[in-house]
Amino acid sequence: MKIKTLLAAVAVSALCASLATAFDFGFELSNKAGFENTSAPDWYTDHKETLWITVPFDAKNENSLAIEGSVYASKPAQGTKYRFYADLDLFRISLVPVSLPDFKLSLDMGRIATADITGFVLSQKIDGIEFHGTFAFGNIDLMAGYTGLLNAREGVTLMTADDTDDYATESIYAFGAKRAVGKLTLQFPQLVGTSDLVIEGVGQYDMRRFVNPAYSQVVDTLYGTVSLNGPIVDSIFYQLSGTWQSGVLNQASVSYSENAILASLRVDAFPMEGNHLFAQFIYTPPQSDLFSDFLPVSFYKAGTLYEQGYGNLMKASAGWFFTPASFLNLDLGGNVFFNSKETSVGSGLYNGTEITGGATLRLTSDLRFRIDSAFLFSLSQAMQYQAAVKAILEL
Model's pTM, two decimal places? Predict the structure, then answer.
């Protein structure tokens, strides 16, 4: 018995020593200061401090726990005081319960990052579980989660007026939009020639009707996407996707249809080492008897200074990423915005042009600087601009 006990103690000690060796953690400081002129000239700052920890459960690091938390402080342009909040960015348990030559099943659960195949419908953190299945014929992903425990200060899920009201808080941690979200993705590699076919469905159900009966709006939506992507030639790749949105918004006992489409074509080229060029065109139709504005689960502006989303929009983009040295990255991009339909008689379709540029300089393995700039030449407003410098220290 004593020998068994001794052997067990040695085995546990060896396991703990192995995990302690692989146990990893770090601290990142990000400080940004800039100047912008949108409605009026003013300066702004953004500060973020992040602590992250990774705990492996095995030697291959296939099973692990990852935790990341941050505190934020910012002084927005046109603001007179600093805004503070804290967030649990990540609490992810990753497991691989099955790993066979022709079948692999892995999963992530907890607070995880998720996105749809286009990035226009869903791209955010979520509390839930996501399964990843790899088969001989392709891949299947299944995700289910809830957004109601996320910090409203992140301001990503903004589908209704109630979501926007949640976002307008000064609390350090306030619960945000209460939505159950699901996603199913089917990927078939090289099904059409050398191109991959992806079929995906995303749905969200507004749980606010149960959590807060005094709501002003609730909206439920479904999204179906078909995407083809693959090489045109060895160094040029394309992605073509179409998304159909269907849903219902209820307000004051009146229901409104939320039907829309979003089409995207993107081409990426790598003509030589250190160079990456891309061009993209995005289209959403104007409001009509058939269509409403595109209403994604995760809202992001269509540009840097361009404040509107992807509704009644035609957007042409192009960019260049250049790495002249291992410690330096440069980027230059442009967006041209058009309305899909005139917003008023005689206003035309052209809306504005945005130009962005930046550089990332890595001085050491732990310290890098980022310079960003953006200029918006709007048809109806004076030129807007912003410039900022960010220092990022990893410890």
Answer: 0.89
